[in-house]
Amino acid sequence: MGSTLYHIGFNRDDLGSNPPTLALLSGDPQRAYQIADQYLENVQRLSENRGLHSYWGVLPNGCPILSATSGMGAPSLSIVVNELVQIGIKKIIRIGTCGSIQDHVKTGSIVISQAALCRQGAANDIAPIEYPASADPFLTVALVQAAKELELTHHLGITASVDTFYEGQERTDSANPTLLRSLQNITEEYRALNILNYEMEAGTLFKMAGVYHFAAACVCGVLAQRTRHEQIDLDHKDLAIDSAIRVAILTAQNCE
Ligand SMILES: O=P(O)(O)O[C@H]1O[C@H](CO)[C@@H](O)[C@H]1O
Ligand SMILES: O=c1cc[nH]c(=O)[nH]1
C-alpha cells in the first residue's frame, strides 16, 4: 500500500483497478461536490481534508475521473496538483470562476484560456518567470468544441492569473486604502493587451503542466464585469458555473 498524500488525503491505491488519469479541479470544494453529485455515477468520497474535497466517479461513457479541489490561489493549487500528479493524474481541467475585463465578455458566459499572463509568486518556485504559461492545445480545442456543441456563449483567449482578488485585480472597494502605484491602471493596460479575464490559478497550473509533463486546460464562468463595476453578479453565478462544468464534462467524455 502506498502512503496517503498528506494534503489531498488519499493515494493511488484508493483509486481502484482502473485509476483515473483525468481530474476536474475546482477552486471551491462545493463545486467539486456539485460536479460529482450532478454529473458522475458511482461516486465515492475520497477525502475532505483541509477543505480539499476529492471525489472519484464515473462519466456517463464509463470512464473514471476525479473531481478535486485546488483551494483558492496558486500556492494551494500547486500543492494539490503536485500530489495529483504523484497519484497518476495526466490531464487536469480547471473549472473556475473569473472576472471579465472586456466589454464583450459578459457575466454568465465562459472563458476558455489559451494561455495566461502569470503574475504569480508560486509559479516562480516552479519555473523561471519567462517560462510560458500555455494551455494544452488539444484539451483547449476540445473545450471550445464542447462549448460550441452545447451552444454556450464562450470566449477563447488570454487570461491574467494573479495572486490576489482585491489588490492584484485592481479592486479599490476593499479594506486596503492604498492600492500600489504599480497596480493602478493595470486593468486598462491588460485590456489593451487583449487579456479577457482575471482569475487566480491558471497561470501556475499551465507552468506546472509544462514542467511536470501533464496536460492542462482551464474554463471559467464569468462572475464579474470589471468594465462596469467590481462586484460579483450573483444573478448570473449559477449560469456561469453550470456552463463551465457542462463544457468540462463533455470535454472529459470526448477525451477519455
Ligand atoms: O472559483 P474559483 O475556482 O475558486 O476561482 C476564482 O475564485 C476565487 C476568488 O473568488 C479564486 O480562486 C479565483 O481564481
Ligand atoms: O472577479 C473575479 C471573479 C472571480 N474570481 C476572480 O478571481 N475574480
TrEMBL record:
User: What are the record keywords, sorted?
Assistant: Glycosyltransferase, Transferase
Give its E.C. classification number. Answer: 2.4.2.3
Q: Does the keyword Transferase apply?
A: yes
Give the record's GO CC terms: cytosol
Keyword Methyltransferase in the entry? The reply is no
Membrane-spanning residues: none
Annotated GO biological processes are: nucleoside catabolic process
Q: What InterPro entries does the record point to?
A: Nucleoside_phosphorylase_CS (IPR018016), Nucleoside_phosphorylase_d (IPR000845), Nucleoside_phosphorylase_sf (IPR035994)
Pfam families from the UniProt entry: PNP_UDP_1
Nucleoside phosphorylase domain mapped to chain residues: 22-244
| CDD domains named in the record | UP_EcUdp-like
In which domain of life is the source organism classified? Answer: Bacteria
A molecular function GO annotation: uridine phosphorylase activity
Q: Which reaction does it catalyse?
A: uridine + phosphate = alpha-D-ribose 1-phosphate + uracil
The record's section on PANTHER family has: FI09636P-RELATED, URIDINE PHOSPHORYLASE
Q: Which family does it belong to?
A: Belongs to the PNP/UDP phosphorylase family.
This protein is called: Uridine phosphorylase
Instruction: Please report the organism this UniProt entry assigns to the protein.
Output: Acaryochloris marina (strain MBIC 11017)
Which gene is transcribed and translated to give this protein? udp
